[in-house]
Design goal:
Blueprint lengths: L1 H10 L2 H23 L1 H8 L5 H16 L2 H15 L1 H21 L3 H4 L2 H31 L5 H29 L2 H8 L1 H18 L6 H11 L4 H8 L1 H32 L4 H29 L1 H20 L6 H19 L2 H8 L2 H20 L2 H10 L4 H19 L11
Helix pairs in contact: 2-6, 2-8, 2-9, 2-11, 3-4, 3-10, 4-8, 4-19, 4-20, 5-6, 5-8, 5-19, 6-8, 6-11, 8-9, 8-18, 8-19, 9-15, 13-14, 13-19, 14-15, 14-17, 14-19, 14-20, 14-21, 15-16, 15-17, 16-17, 16-21
Length: about 425
Amino acid sequence: MVEATTRIRHRLPVRKLFAASVGNALEWFDWTIYATFSIYFATAFFPSGNDTLAQINTFATYALAFFFRPLGGILLGRFADVRGRKPAMILTISLMAGGSVLIAIIPTFHQIGWFAPALLLLARIAQGLSLGGEVSNASAYLGEVAPPAWRGRYSSFFYISTGSAVLLASVLGFVLARTMNKTDLGSYGWRIPFLIGGVLGIIGLWLRRSLAETELFEQNKTRAKRVHRPLLTTLREHPRAVGQLIGITMLSTLCYYTFFSALTPFAVKTRHAGDVDVFLALSVGTALFVALQYPFGKLADRVGRKPQLLAWSAAMAVLIVPLSTLVRPGLGGLIVVFAVGLGLYSALASLAPAIMSELFPTRLRGLGIGAWYNLTVALFGGTAPLVISALSAAGASVLFFWYVAAAAVIAFLVILSLPETRGIELR
């Protein structure tokens, strides 16, 4: 009887999971296509004549927008803690879609001068604020609607949606690269994905309006409103959780932005790999990443969080530098890089919302995740494409991969300090 009840409870929130996950997928599609298509539009928004400088300026804008993510995480995380997960997620997807449409219609530097990069930055700021709230609020939502014994499996829906969005972006890049010449892609083709993102955002907004609020939020919203100085409260009452979140997120975000963002322009511009091969290899790796989410979430619900996380961080520490040597012309090596790297990353990604939700109590969950997760992402993820571009320009690209390996060692030590949280009730 207990097992049957658990199975019924597992089926009940399918519509909620679908609506939350689809909205999250659209958020990440809009966010990802900026990095994916930057190799085509960099010179549209900055002075022509120096492609490397234009690429670095484009990634600097990309990185700068990340520093608005902590602000979005704080503001929208607190909004979610006191007003609800649902209205916060509706707000985040509206900001993201609006930013995508703005990027799609901005005139070029040749047409309006420095207003072009200024408008690009404005759009990225809106998307940075949006994504800062999206990750924390969607993670909290998925964690709060899950029965304790199934939280890993529910958690996997977050990166199933994220991976599907990135897969759509990479497949779109592959299709456009095959059907359009580079002149047309640089002229107007890169605008197509941003327009698609804006349209899909409207669909996501409609889906999220059907979400029901979580019971844990309803039970704790009065307590959340009574919290004064909530950011300081997370440090004062949960310093260990803050440190653990930062340590794990440092490697997680480097993995994400290395494989999903930084490697594409690095492989094409620095290692002279074919763009079609890179997009195809990324698509294969991303499909594997999506396919492994639920199995890894299920495994963590059965054997625990720590063994899986320790295996992921140890493997990344050992393998990331050797993998970097395969980033070169030729489809086979590129497929190995993306498949191995993203396959390993699935072990963490499938659990990320569950782990973050288990670190903080409900009254601080949105802000606690939003602030400290996004600060770490801004410092390490947002700068990853810029760092690898700068090191490549200096002829020292291998140092970037040693940097990721060092982060993996730190994450391994942090994970050792984590308590095992499989099956616990959220506070």
